[in-house]
Design goal:
By secondary structure, the protein is α/β, with parallel strands linked by helices. It contains 7 helices and 5 strands; from the N terminus they run βααβααβααβαβ.
Length: about 130
């Protein structure tokens, strides 16, 4: 099972750079409700809105569990203590942590182009990760 991070869709919508790789995925694809929320927040035009509606209708959603939410706060606290990140950076990381924990809980491989943030998260909580 595969879960795409919003960075893959954003990069692909802007440049088409991942279209062939996405189309060639042989695994079962799921969509993260967190990713959809991020994408809806930044949707800039009707074409992007149509794509998001299509995505939601064609791939079942995975949503963070109660435990994922609680663990995300604990994990972010550890990251803050060890790295001294300011509140803005922690807010930016929070959705990524939720996406990673959801992938872990479901056994899905997370595919992202956001290497730095997801490798940081992976150093605190292991999950299947592929960086494009």
């Amino acid at each position: 099972m595969v879960l795409f991070d919003s960075s893959i869709f954003i990069d692909d919508l802007r440049t088409g750079c991942f279209s062939e790789r996405i189309a060639g995925i042989g695994d079962i694809v799921r969509t993260s409700s967190v990713v959809l929320a991020e994408l809806w927040r930044g949707a800039a035009n009707d074409a992007e809105e149509r794509f998001l509606a299509w995505l939601a209708n064609h791939y079942p959603l995975l949503t963070p569990t109660e435990e994922n939410w609680l663990k995300s706060g604990q994990l972010l606290r550890r990251i803050q203590q060890e790295h001294g990140f300011e509140a803005k950076k922690l807010r930016d990381l929070h959705f990524d942590v939720l996406i990673a924990l959801t992938a872990r809980t479901s056994g899905a491989k997370l595919i992202t182009s956001n290497r730095a943030d997801f490798q940081l998260i992976k150093s605190y909580r292991d999950f299947k990760l592929e960086v494009w």
